[in-house]
Specification:
The chain is of the alpha+beta class. It has helices at residues 31-36, 41-55, 58-73, 144-157, 178-187, 191-206, 275-287, and strands spanning 39-40, 78-82, 86-90, 94-100, 105-109, 132-136, 175-176, 211-215, 218-223, 227-234, 238-243, 255-256, 263-268. The protein has two domains: 19-37 and 165-287, Aspartate Aminotransferase, domain 1 (Alpha-Beta Complex); 41-157, Aspartate Aminotransferase, domain 1. The strands form two sheets. It has a seven-stranded antiparallel sheet, covered by helices on one side. The protein has a six-stranded antiparallel sheet with strand order 1-2-3-4-5-6.
Length: 293
């Protein structure tokens, strides 16, 4: 089984021969587009949870408490793990990092020097032109309301958020490589971001030589010189994944479209992904001749 519950599929959407291509809208546009013209995500969150648990003392409790306040202040925050296992919280850029030392938990705000801090939470790295840090020692109490206000100010200070088109699909400039794909995924709203991160990680793990790009406000995955084998797109209630040669996969993905060879899988909130099945599909798809615009 691909998902634990029954799939609900949207009306079929065509690909290569869809007139929307000529309108510059792209292959995975259905009802929503008619209206609009390190480690990341779930894996990173698990690593951070594991880190706090493994610390097993006041530092783990403190890091966990500050992490919860960050997520309360910004429900759309992206969790990452970088720099030798350092937790990082981002939204339109890095908000802060969380480091643990023998006697201190340090939260470093990358643009802290430009933030208003009326509660004077910043007590470390005060000499720099950009960064400011909060050093928390055992027994220290942090003003939760003031800290959450600081997080919100840091988010506002970062680059303006990506515009979301109808259905919540991020508007990302056309570009080649991993960077525009990660920008798209980071801008996916709510639970859909975790799906995007998980799909991207599965693809990279299953197809190590994958080529990435963003076209028509959708991430594309392919093999250099052989075209594209997959793309996905954000809709209001699901993430639509399209296999350009899906009819040749075994088992055939369940969602049919207007184009003979294309098959879709719609992923809704709460759907469980069978990673073994997806890895098999990805390896099959990447070995087939891809779609060339």
């Amino acid at each position: 089984m691909i998902f634990m519950r029954k799939q609900v599929f949207s009306p079929p959407v065509s690909l290569a021969y869809d007139p929307s291509w000529r309108a510059g809208q792209g292959p995975l546009h259905g009802e929503a587009m008619k209206k609009s013209g390190g480690s990341q995500g779930g894996s990173a969150s698990k690593l951070i949870s594991r880190k706090t648990a493994q610390l097993g003392d006041w530092r783990g409790e403190t890091l966990g408490r500050m992490r919860q306040l960050i997520k309360e202040a910004d429900p759309d925050v992206v969790e990452e793990v970088k720099w030798m296992g350092t937790p990082v919280w981002s939204h339109g850029g890095i908000i802060c990092t969380g480091e643990t030392y023998k006697n201190v938990v340090k939260l470093t705000f990358m643009k802290g020097a430009s933030l208003e801090d009326p509660a004077r939470l910043f007590n470390s790295s005060l000499e720099g032109n950009a960064r400011r840090a909060i050093d928390i020692h055992e027994g220290d109490k942090i003003d939760a309301k003031a800290f959450k206000a600081l997080v919100k100010a840091a988010v506002a200070r970062n680059d303006p958020p990506v515009k979301l088109l109808s259905g919540g699909n991020p508007q990302i400039a056309k570009g080649e490589g991993d960077a525009p794909v990660q920008a798209y995924i980071a801008a996916m709203p709510g639970w859909k971001r975790d799906i995007g991160q998980r799909l991207d990680a599965l693809i990279a793990r299953s197809v190590p030589d994958v080529r990435k790009a963003v076209k028509w406000n959708s991430p594309f995955y392919g093999i250099e010189g052989r075209g594209w084998f997959l793309s996905f797109h954000t809709f209001a209630r699901y993430v639509k994944v399209g296999f350009f040669r899906g009819a040749s996969l075994r088992p055939v993905p369940p969602g049919a479209g207007k184009v003979k060879n294309v098959r879709y899988v719609d992923i809704h909130e709460g759907d469980e992904i069978d990673e073994a099945q997806w890895a098999a599909w990805l390896k099959q798809a990447s070995a087939l001749p891809g779609w060339v615009p």
